Amino acid sequence: MTQEKQPTFDIVRIYTKNVSLESPNTPEVFKLNVQPEIQIQLGNDHREVDPNIHEILLRVTVTATYKTEAEEGAEGETKVMFLAEVEQAGLFLIEGFEEGQEAHLKGAYCPNILYPYIRPALDQLIAGAGFPPVMLSPINFEAIYADRLAQQAAEAAEEQVDA
Predict the structure, then answer these.
(1) I need a labelling partner for 96 at 20 to 30 A (CA). Which of 28, 34, 40, 114 fits?
(2) d(CA 6, CA 130)
(3) DSSP per-residue string spanning 83-117
(4) What gap in Å lies between CA 133 and CA 121, rounded to an integer?
(5) How many structural domains compose the chain?
(6) Is residue 153 part of a domain?
(7) From start to end of 23-159, where are the E strands?
(8) Is 96 in contact with 63 (CB distance < 8 Å)?
(9) How far, in Å, CA of 81 to CA of 100, rounded?
(10) What's the DSSP call for residue 131?
(11) What is the CATH number of the domain that holds 94?
């Protein structure tokens, strides 16, 4: 009787991979009484570093911009208040899963594990630069992953029609 190997998932390590902050218009920006426009970009990536050991990377970039006062006959200029980026990574043992299940773990489940670590790291980075922290909302990585799959399926269907 052969024994099927059970799928295995484990967190090997969670770590901060990269942190950066730019605030090119300090200290002048501290004198302003403006409400910045906040843009948040989210990205994730993965790579196999050893057999069945995958590095999953979650990147969050927060950019705060503001408009300078318009001068006569000209529009105000958009300037960067700060740009903060944190890359949180994890090493995960992923073994014995079907291809679709493994893709789901890498694209949704692991980012869900990493996200709680990235939020305080970003808040601390931004507050340490003298700005109020940006409260990141919870993110539904399952929905993002499902949207990405639907988009890939639509693109594949479109390519077949064009062929």
Answers:
(1) 114
(2) 50
(3) EEEEEEEEEEEEES--HHHHHHIIIIIHHHHHHHH
(4) 10
(5) 1
(6) no
(7) 37-50, 53-67, 78-95
(8) no
(9) 42
(10) S
(11) 3.10.420.10
Q: Edge-to-edge strand order for the sheet containing 37-50?
A: 8-22, 78-95, 53-67, 37-50
**Residue 54, domain member (yes or no):** yes
So what's the pLDDT on residue 3?
Answer: 63
83 close to 1: Cβ distance less than 8 angstroms: no
- Which of the 8 DSSP states describes residue 30? G
Give the pair of three-digit tokens for residue 27: 């200290």
pLDDT for the residue numbered 5: 79
> Domain containing 15: what range?
8-138
Q: Please list the ranges in the chain whose pLDDT falls under 70.
A: 1-3, 73, 163
Could you tell me if residue 155 is inside a domain?
Answer: no
Rounded distance between C-alpha atoms, residue 80 and residue 35, angstroms: 12
Identify the pLDDT of residue 82: 98
